[in-house]
Write a structure and sequence with these properties.
By secondary structure, this protein is mainly α. The protein has one domain: dinb family like domain (Four Helix Bundle (Hemerythrin (Met), subunit A), Up-down Bundle), CATH 1.20.120. Helices cover 56% and strands 5% of the residues. A two-stranded antiparallel sheet has the order 1-2. The termini are far apart.
Length: 177
């Protein structure tokens, strides 16, 4: 089944995010290594908002007619979409609409919002018969992706920020409890 790659990446990154957050104190969740960096709370808010926003792009793309002629616009494989999105080797600026602004009262609420959106995405990719390969999304930085790659992008985006959380937890000043 072609959808296995996206399914596996979505499930794996959901579990990795939950595990990275396990048993963190309020102080750890709020820790910032500098005023310019995001705390784990802020990273989690961003991931939750992005999860929802990117899914909205998928929904909009599904409403469009399939257009196989646009396949020529695709410049990356599914694995390249995932790996480039997940990579922490370059800095990316978040669109304003998914920058953390304190939308959630705490990490538990942000994680619940993330899971509430992620679980149906996993269910969708495991059962869909929709023509995801001939419907498209134009990401402002990554360029044209088909909707299957857009779902892969969702998982890669999570992986990127899971790595960011892990990096923050390794900072010398990160609270021990």
């Amino acid at each position: 089944m072609e959808n296995n790659f996206a399914f596996n990446q979505l499930e794996t990154t959901r579990e990795k995010l939950i595990n990275e957050l396990h048993a963190l104190s309020d102080g750890q969740l709020a820790y910032k290594s500098s005023p310019a960096t995001w705390s784990i709370n802020e990273i989690l808010e961003h991931v939750a908002l992005a999860e929802n926003g990117i899914w909205q792009a998928v929904r909009q793309g599904l409403a469009a007619d399939a257009d196989p002629a646009r396949r020529a616009e695709i410049k990356m494989t599914d694995e390249e979409v995932y790996n480039k999105t997940a990579s922490r080797n370059y800095k990316a600026n978040s669109p304003e609409v998914i920058k953390p602004v304190g939308k959630f009262p705490d990490a538990a609420a942000a994680l619940a919002f993330f899971i509430k959106r992620r679980n149906p995405t996993i269910e969708y990719i495991s059962t869909t018969q929709d023509d995801l390969r001939n419907r498209f999304w134009n990401h402002p930085f990554a360029g044209t992706m088909d909707l299957y790659q857009t779902i892969v992008f969702i998982a890669g985006h999570s992986e990127r920020h899971i790595a960011q959380i892990a990096e923050l937890k390794q900072q010398d000043g990160f609270p021990k409890e």
